[in-house]
Predict the structure of Claudin.
Amino acid sequence: MANSGFQLLGFFLALGGWIGIISTTALPQWKQSSYAGDAIITAVGLYEGLWMSCASQSTGQVQCKVYDSLLSLDVHIQTSRALMVVAILMGFIGMIISVLGMKCTKVGDNNPIIKSRIAVSGGALFLLAGFCTLIAVSWYATRVSHDFFNPSTPVNARYEFGSALFVGWAASSLTMLGGSFLCCSCPNQERGEQQYYRQSQPSATREYV
């Protein structure tokens, strides 16, 4: 019963992280304009994401423009896009596999060893999804930090970390933590069942004789 609760905890943590990965991919605030140093504070705030760039005015009006060409984007944006999409797909597949392999579901109850291995596979996919998200967000943040401290970058063209990066870091942590719980909850059960089978088999043979 405790193992089943551990699996449920891991699944819901991973599910919350996967929803955070989707939100991170869709949010345009991967980087936002900086007003550090001698930069003049204007009434327009600029921020950019993986799919569009937006301008927010002091009146509350927001105007966004989708990037015109994929090939004209920087390499780190294209790579981050690919990693985030792969993370979403792996998280979706991992969610389905985890539901089939968890102890609280009735699918495959006749073979608990195979069922536990399915749950571990779902947890591994969640781990990979969180790792892809971590790479994409961290690489993007590294580029933003490099451009910010680059002396050749104009002061009024510098950007800081946007809120989407922090959401991505939190989402990747939750996804990997939940995937770890799913991976760690099943092997102990499998070994216990194997030991029980080995211990009960000789006694059953003796009783038969």
About this structure: The chain has one domain: 2-28+73-208. The domain at 2-28+73-208 is CATH 1.20.140.150 (Butyryl-CoA Dehydrogenase, subunit A; domain 3).
